[in-house]
Amino acid sequence: MNELPNCPSCGSAYTYEDGSLLVCPECAHEWMPGAEAGDGADSAKVVRDANGNELRDGDSVTVIKDLKVKGSSSVLKIGTKVKNIRLVDGDHDIDCKIDGFGAMKLKSEFVRKA
User: Fold this and answer.
1) Which end of the chain is more exposed for a tag (fewer CB within 10 A), N or C?
2) Where is the Protein YjdM N-terminal domain (predicted)?
């Protein structure tokens, strides 16, 4: 019989193959065969600005394009400096507070590292 590895998430021995993935029926964890929990397969996503510089939590960035604020008639102007950003998962990967606007989410493609 084919020996499949235990689930790296919960340790269950009841794993099965689903196409090219291995699946755990107990915790619903899916992984590629040969990829273990600590080998970097689930490493943090690298977020880069419009110029290709790597962004990190706490960095300051500058807006490089006028951005319309959804749900408002105001516009975030080019050159607006944003301090102390937080990187988050999702479509908008920067979470920040902007003076005069409040809390906002930005896409990294519209900012450059200051």
Assistant:
1) N
2) 3-31
Please check whether residue 29 is in contact with residue 23, taking contact to mean a CB–CB distance below 8 angstroms: yes
Cα separation, 113 vs 98, in Å, equals 15
Higher pLDDT, residue 44 or 57: 57
Q: Answer yes or no: are the C-beta atoms of 66 and 75 closer than 8 Å.
A: yes
Q: Which two tokens stand for residue 113?
A: 């590292």
Most confident of 29-33, 44-48, 110-114: 110-114
Please answer whether residues 111 and 52 qualify as being in contact, where contact means their C-beta atoms are separated by less than 8 angstroms. Answer: no
What percent of the chain shows pLDDT beyond 70? 89
In whole angstroms, give the CA distance from residue 23 to residue 10: 12
| Residue 30 main-chain phi, psi, to 5 deg | -120, 140
